[in-house]
Specification:
about 40% strand; four-stranded antiparallel sheet; twelve-stranded mixed sheet; Immunoglobulin-like; about 325 residues; mainly beta; Apoptosis, Tumor Necrosis Factor Receptor Associated Protein 2, Chain A
């Protein structure tokens, strides 16, 4: 009888233990979900800004020459970076086709694309559309192909923040220094295609002055352009060599602005030197905020076949 009671008690204990373990796992899973849900998004990470793609069947792979309005273009625009885009900072165009054959007109475009943020962690997505109003099909052809490119040109900013060590006398052998300058590598981008990838302190003979060497790279698929260039000129493809690779650099430590040299990128990389005066005599750690201002252009392309036909619903080849 005692053995039976003990066995019964053991089964109860095992059941209670199983229930307790299950409740603990459920509580842990619940805590995990809550943590994930409440995670704060760092918008100043990533290597993208504007991401574009043609929507399915817009344009279609093949159209009839007698039905120009069936040749419509729709481009999805997604701002996946940390700077806002607007009609003043973003221009789009459909280019690359023969204007003697196709007449393409833009529809009304809404180019307000707020950046990623804590309140808007996924960024903003919209669609831009164009309509073909006429097809002037050349004689003595059964079909022709037209390459079509959606080109975007925009102004953008990347902001990098990093805590660094500044030492006006890095060569001095002083005991108990708070910190020593070291090369700092920044990974994963800062919410834009152009990013600071490395920060070094250059050695200067002057006391109370420090100089930062900033290495900047174009981590995106597009081309960096002068931020001061007219965007209409860019989308028209009217760029010169001197318009490419230009980046303006600004930096500050606390409220003090540094004097930074502009950058011209070569092979997607360049260097800026930022000088800071009026430093204390000893080393100290401090956050530095670096702002890169630049223009950017990128494009996507597709091909459309145009088939001759007197009626839109005529079978191809009839």
């Amino acid at each position: 009888m005692r053995a039976t009671a003990m066995g019964h008690s053991g089964r109860i204990l095992k059941t209670v233990s199983s229930v307790t373990l299950l409740l603990a796992l459920l509580l842990l899973a619940s805590c995990g979900r809550t943590t994930a849900k409440n995670t704060i998004i760092d918008a100043h990470q990533g290597k993208e800004a504007l991401v574009m793609k043609f929507l399915p069947n817009m344009p279609p792979a093949r159209v009839f020459s007698a039905d120009p309005q069936s040749l419509q273009f729709a481009v999805q625009l997604h701002n996946n970076g940390a700077a806002d885009l607007s009609a003043e900072t973003l221009k789009l165009a459909i280019v690359g086709y023969d204007k003697k054959i196709l007449t393409i007109e833009p529809d009304e475009q809404d180019l307000a694309l707020p950046a990623r943020s804590v309140e808007n962690p996924q960024g903003t997505t919209k669609v831009a559309t164009w309509t073909t109003t006429a097809i002037n099909f050349p004689a003595k052809h059964d079909s022709i192909s037209q390459s079509v490119t959606a080109r975007a040109c925009y102004r953008y900013q990347t902001i990098a923040t990093q805590t660094i060590c500044l030492d006006p006398k890095p060569e001095a052998q002083v005991k108990d220094k708070v910190c020593s300058p070291a090369s700092t590598t920044l990974k994963n981008g800062q919410g834009g295609p152009v990013s600071v990838v490395k920060i070094d302190q250059a050695l200067l003979p002057s006391v109370s002055r420090a100089q930062l060497k900033l290495t900047v790279q174009n981590l995106g698929k597009g081309e960096v352009i002068n931020p001061d260039i007219a965007l209409d000129k860019c989308v028209a493809g009217d760029l010169q060599v001197q318009d490419l690779g230009k980046v303006t650099v600004a930096a500050r430590v606390n409220e003090q602005e540094l004097t930074c040299t502009p950058i011209t990128l070569y092979n997607k990389q360049g260097t800026s030197y930022c000088t800071l005066d009026g430093l204390p005599d000893t080393a100290f750690t401090t956050p530095v905020v670096i702002t890169l201002s630049y223009g950017y252009t990128e494009s996507i392309s597709t091909t459309v076949e145009i088939v001759t036909s007197q009626e839109p619903d005529s079978p191809v080849g009839s």
